[in-house]
Amino acid sequence: MTKKAKPLGIYMLAMINVAAILSIKNWPMTAEYGATSIFYFLIGALLFFVPVSLVSAELATTLPEKGGLYLWVKTAMGHRVGFLAIYLAWISNVIWYPTVLSFIAGTLAFVITPSLANNNTYVFTVILLTFYGATYINLKGMRISGWMSSFGAILGTLVPGALIIILGAKWLFGSQVSHLTFTMDTLVPSLNEPARLAILAGVLLGFAGMEMSAVHAKDVDNPRKNYPKAILLSALIILIFSILGTLSIATVLPPENINLVAGSMEAIGIFMESFHMQWLTPIIALLIALGALASVSTWAIGPSKGLLEAANDGDLPACFHKTNKANVPSTILLCQALVVTVVSAVFLYFPDVNSSFWILITLSSLLYILCYILIFTSAIILKYKANTKNLPRPYRVPGKNIGMWIVSGIGIVTCISIFILGFLPPEHLSDSEQHFFVSFLVIGLVIFSLIPFLILLGKHKLFSKK
User: Fold this and answer.
1) Does the pTM exceed 0.85?
2) Residue 183 sits in which domain range?
3) Residue 132 and residue 111: Cα distance in Å, rounded?
4) Torsion angle of alpha carbons 371, 372, 373, 376, nearest 10°?
5) pLDDT tens-digit series, residues 383-404
6) Does 4 fall in a domain?
7) How far apart are CA 371 and CA 172, in angstroms?
8) What CATH number did the domain enclosing 64 receive?
């Protein structure tokens, strides 16, 4: 007789969310915009983060069965559209992994020698070792990866994040020179520079993932009551840390010198040297790398479990149905690791790390936006569908059906707007690089979006022959 796994509580689930979403890696990207980043965070939170959190809480507690977003979209629009949704979530993560893995490599370089951060072979090697390590952890089962997420969130994100915020405040209100200014011009972006609004795509990706923990809804102790509480707790932690952490980095680093991969550690290095605590730098680097690894570990299993449900419904070949003794989709995780290996090779061929980082972040964001549009649309449909409209809904989006229309409508309009803005290239790119940026996004979107349709078409033809 197998021992029943201990259910997840509010704290554990909140830490899984924090580990998956809150990342020190994202702070340099928004710190580049200084005090204006507050505007972007608040807009992103109000028009995207809050709607996603509210909708996820209702859907996860109404349909707490395994499958998460795949189950929601499948129930609303059929298993083929459900497969498209979970595929978009999965592939956007595969494209995102190399960015956070390169951040881990750059952070660990400060433990050995910072110059290694510019060594492509070193970065690529650490990327592979880190991701295959995260894959191994997840193959051991949810309980191990759950504890990894919890400890990683505390020691690897909250502790160093709090240290950055405290030192940033001391720097800002002390005698040191600050690069952060608070005026109306710096707090509100100019509409004459629409390209600066493209950062919203990055902010959105930084807030993405609240729905991911819904795949663990059945593992939660009293999910209908505790899941919404965990979402609220994690949302507050994520928003507060993101704003204060970004401002701390913007305080110490001039915007034109911020490195998107190593910016966090560069800021920490300056803080430690200024306050005579250089000995802490390698320790903080190890903790931040641990937090990033926890984030990868959490994300590696979430969409994969949803993809397993799609495989069980016949949308993927039979080999993808396989699970190991820990009930983890082993074939999908191993396949995912192979794809990440191929995608990560981009860092071997692009000398400009910042441009490569931004391109992958944007492409990942645009693919995930398409998934979110399907989630918001499904939330509205499920309010009226015959087999779901009368289901018990212990947590409801405020305002009943009209409230769901308003909240999901705001989410859909926001997603469409940011999708369009995402094609605006960063200001620092040359004309030729801007053309490459747009072309890469268009080609990448077309190729990756067509894959699920080709899979379904191939299966349809195969069954037709039979």
Assistant:
1) no
2) 10-460
3) 21
4) 130
5) 998 778 888 877 788 888 999 9
6) no
7) 40
8) 1.20.1740.10
